């Protein structure tokens, strides 16, 4: 999926892959997470539509239940300095600062990125993050 995103968007940067302990949901195997930074002319809603189509293309099936195993899950964490709060999309992602599995990959590629809500860098948010779930970089 990262290769596809790199082919479509400009100034692509991706983190390493991280094995992460699942947060919430039933007992399940570790997830593989990564972070990426891209530039796009797409508006946030159109970008999410593209990401959802990519998820389906990679085998994700719709489910009303949350936190279940899935083949691909792409979240839009930031969109520049945009602050947007609507039922279909909230930017920045409302729980990103509580999730080590989001912050670790972002800190690798964009540690000085500033959260427009708190004014803190990704590095500072990672230091302050209360999440103790297991997250470690992998070579796979």
Topology of helices and strands:
Elements (H helix, E strand, L loop, with lengths): L1 H7 L1 E5 L2 E4 L10 E3 L2 E4 L4 H14 L26 E3 L2 E3 L8 H10 L12 H7 L6 E4 L2
Antiparallel strand pairs: 1-4, 2-3, 2-7, 5-6
Characterize the structure shown.
The chain is an alpha+beta fold. It has a single domain, classed as 7,8-Dihydro-6-hydroxymethylpterin-pyrophosphokinase HPPK (Alpha-Beta Plaits, 2-Layer Sandwich). Helices cover 27% and strands 19% of the residues. The protein has helices spanning 2-8, 44-57, 100-109, 122-128; strands spanning 10-14, 17-20, 31-33, 36-39, 84-86, 89-91, 135-138. The strands form 3 sheets. It has a 3-stranded antiparallel beta sheet with strand order 3-2-7, covered by helices on one side. It has a two-stranded antiparallel ribbon with strand order 1-4. A hairpin with a 2-residue loop joins strand 5 and strand 6 (89-91). The longest helix is centred in the middle third of the chain and has 14 residues, at 44-57. The protein is globular, with a radius of gyration of 15 Å. The mean pLDDT is 90.
